[in-house]
Amino acid sequence: MADFKQACEYLKKASLRGSKLGLERVSVLMNLLNNPQNKLKVIHVSGTNGKGSFCAMLNSVLKESGYKTGAFNSPALTGITDYFRINGEEISENKFAEIMTELIPVCESMDEKPTEFEVISAAAYLLFYRENCDIAIVECCMGGDTDATNTVESPILSVITNVRKDHTAFLGDTLPEIAQHKAGIIKNSRPVFYGGETDSEVYKVIKNKAESLNSELYTNNSKISDIDYSLDGISFTYGDKKLYSPLIGTYQINNISNVLNCVEILNKNGLEISDKALENGLKNTKWHGRFEIISRNPLVIFDGAHNPDGISQAVNTIEKYFDKIVLLIGVMADKEYNLYNSMLGRFIDRAFTVKPDNPRALDSETLAETFENAESCPIFSEGVRKAYSYAKEKNLPLIALGSLYMYREFTDTMKNIDTTEE
Predict the structure, then answer these.
(1) What is the per-residue pLDDT for 308?
(2) Do domains 4-283 and 292-421 have the same CATH topology?
(3) Which pLDDT belongs to residue 168?
(4) What gap in Å lies between CA 386 and CA 377, rounded to an integer?
(5) Is 154 within 8 Å of 61 (Cβ atoms)?
(6) What three-state secondary structure class fits 295?
């Protein structure tokens, strides 16, 4: 049996095969595994932004309803096991090693070996099947039609949270092009929900795809009112019920609305989700990396905003809560980072730029040049410490924005600061 270290080493080996879009290899792999994805009730989730928060809230609601849930989200924020959750809890290293022990020889038997993400996606479906999950909530990594998770033939619901510009090198330069890829998760005669605007070219693409597959298309019919935002969470009225979410980003109200719509759809299609389960599920949702308060004194917040739409949403939240901030930011080189100063500049007292630990990351010097009042920090941990010290001295909130790939580095450094300097 492979131990955890050996399982991780195999994934590193798979990562050397690069990133290849397409379902050819992963379909062969799933066939060799007897297609566990088609023996599960799957909610398949695509979209540009909001997928992780949406999945976390829906997962919590379903758990409160008594369903055993499996959840697959990417990227993993803290380590390989963070991709996979059973009933909301990250799986153990032993559980991951156990699944990989079954998976590795099957992968190695293939003429064309699968990529890292294809292995991870297969591991998720196999895990949820082995664990007898009632429902699996599976998030696409990128796009939809050629994403490695898109081997499920008959999901109980397909979800497209929204369509914005991101990954244009892979998905196209225009929103309709990107929408074509996202709409690839729509399956024949299976319901689909779209959470974006309905007066757009994107909606026409999704509507046409749903009609061609005889799939009932639902759109966001928001019944939310009396919204109250605070750094303790969001309270709102839904119908005649007063509900609460601990997630504080103002953009979360859109994700909450999507969840409420999908709960109605799922109830209509055979699930049983009570009002009480909905209330408790939203209230008990835990999710990392999305306007997450890391420390309250001084106030330190991390948000994984990394594309223009994400930054725009973060700006709306910053404007709601703060006048001035200290910014720590690190992004991938393929992002439209030249836009970020014009979007964030009026709030920034001082910016500190860092390079996340990822081969696709932009160097801190180039990023610093795009901000008016910025200091480049080539060593990530030193950048966090400088930003933290400056924020503490000025009594300003420290907001860390950028790639989710820097979440672990950031929180690990913050833990060290808390224990050695507080």
Answers:
(1) 82
(2) no
(3) 45
(4) 9
(5) no
(6) strand
**CATH number belonging to domain 4-283:** 3.40.1190.10
Q: Scan for tokens 């600061």, then name that residue.
A: 417
Residue 419 in this model has a pLDDT that exceeds 50: no
Name the amino acid, one letter, at 380. F
The verdict on pTM exceeding 0.85 is: yes
How far the first Cα of the chain sits from its last, in Å, is 44
Q: How many CA atoms lie within 13 A of 122 on its CB side?
A: 28
- The predicted model gives 252-257 an average pLDDT of 96
Q: How far is the C-alpha of 73 from the C-alpha of 407, rounded, in Å?
A: 15
Contact status, residue 389 vs residue 418, Cβ threshold 8 Å: no
Under a CB-based contact definition with an 8 Å cutoff, are residues 26 and 113 in contact? no
The Cα 31–Cα 6 span in angstroms is: 24
What residue ranges do the domains of the chain occupy?
A: 4-283, 292-421
Q: Is 305 exposed, middle or buried (0-12, 13-18, 19+ CB in 10 A)?
A: buried
Q: Where are the alpha helices (DSSP H) in 155-307?
A: 168-171, 175-182, 201-212, 252-268, 275-283
- The β-bridge relationship of strands 233-238 and 241-245 is antiparallel
Residue 152's closest CA among 186, 107, 114, 105?
186
Closest C-alpha among 182, 148, 161 to residue 58: 161
Which conformational region is residue 172 in: left (phi greater than 0), alpha (psi within -120 to 50 degrees), or beta?
Answer: left
Single-letter code of the amino acid located at 116: E
CATH architecture of 292-421: Alpha-Beta Complex (3.90)
Burial 392-419 (b: 16+ CB within 10 A, else e): beeebbbbbbbbbbbbbbbbebbeebee
